[in-house]
Amino acid sequence: MVEDSQKVFNRIHLFVDAIIIAFSYACAYYLKFKLSFANISIGRLPMQTYFFALVFILPGYLLLYYAFDLYDNHSNIRGRRQEFANILKANIVGILVFIVVLYGIRQLDFSRYMLVQFFCFNVFLDTFARNVFREVLKKMRRDGKNIKYILLIGYSRAAEEYIDRIQANPQWGYIIRGVLDDDIESGLVYKGIKVLGRIDNLVYILKSNSAHLNEIAITLSIKQYDKLESIVAMCEKSGLHTKFIPDYNKIIPTKPYTEDLLGLPVINIRHIPLSIGFNQFIKRVMDIVGALASLIVFSPVMLITAILIKTTSKGPLIYKQERVGLRNRPFKMYKFRSMEVQPEKEEKKAWTVKNDPRVTPIGKFIRKTSIDELPQIINVLKGEMSLVGPRPERPLFVEKFREEIPRYMIKHQVRPGMTGWAQVNGFRGDTSIIKRIEHDLYYIENWTLGLDFKILFLTIFKGFVNKNAY
Questions:
Q1: Which of 8, 142, 293, 333 could form a disulfide linkage to 323, CB 3.0–4.6 angstroms apart?
Q2: Residue pLDDT, tens place only, 251-276
Q3: Which H helix or E strand runs over 148?
Q4: CATH code of the domain occupying 148-250
């Protein structure tokens, strides 16, 4: 029943999206050509030409929405931001493809301004409609409609984490009936969810389905995996949708990279998109182009900084510090000198602290505004760093964190960056190293060129001024 209603909702989504696309296109046309104060007729195409294009735009956009997962059964779980991002991506791709087609067929009189208006209308209206739909669905689920009932098989960390997430997000429409487990005594309650009995009881529960179950979630502890095959066989016979939530989720990533080895599924512990040659090439091209552009843009700032450093304190202009980079290889990272010259042994002892007497007056400013990092553009051009990536650490800290922080060394499987996902999320300087590594790992496992552009964009607004820089 729930699955049928989900299909109905998806059909409604499809129908509403089709209306919004057509309405947005019509609004853009009339705003451009009927309500415009400028009565320009030179190069104007007839109305029939514009609306004939809609014959291709409408199905094309619906296919794009499908490709960007806007019609799957878990759109409500992803959240508003992810859904908006998918709408935005689909519309950007749609507009770009349409413009390329126009150039390909040499139709240069088609109004680009009208397409921009169509893009704005469509993104706004579709986002608004989906948020309204989300609120309607949320109210229905509060009223006990469109609910999925789930039984958990196995009490484990995975079971507790699953219960936590379900209860924190009632809008998902899940209700957990209880847990079956052989090692936990019946009657144990975790956040209102009771252990109902042994796993053997599953046979009778599935046969009668008196609990009106819609799904089975297998959440066995890792020591109980010998029972997994028989449990899956029972669930499959019942016809209920079954999912497996592994108890080793701390080991594998949320999006594991799987391979088909002649019918044998292989799960890689870590999926690193930048280990693929084509991705490496694209990122390197972006680094070179971006670094050259940055040198041109920031050359006046770098020149003024160099003059101020040289005239206000003694010592070299550029400070070179050993850091650990790609594949654990050490390299010399460049910075504008922001501290008084000191013996290397003293400098290596610790991070800079608040009101550190070693920092020069000019140094305080260039550290706070990240101007001291600009010479790393040269490291990027040399191939030792990237514009975006995990920030590199000194060898002594790498050795320390290697032992203290699980998965720390994974960050060295990609080039270190001038800025990164951790930095734009506020984890710079004297902040949690654990949180920094979590963000670095997210970046490494979820890298896309779009994510790099997003980080560079956020760096402009959030990454330059660092309140934790001393």
A1: 333
A2: 776 666 777 777 777 777 777 889 88
A3: strand 148-153
A4: 3.40.50.20
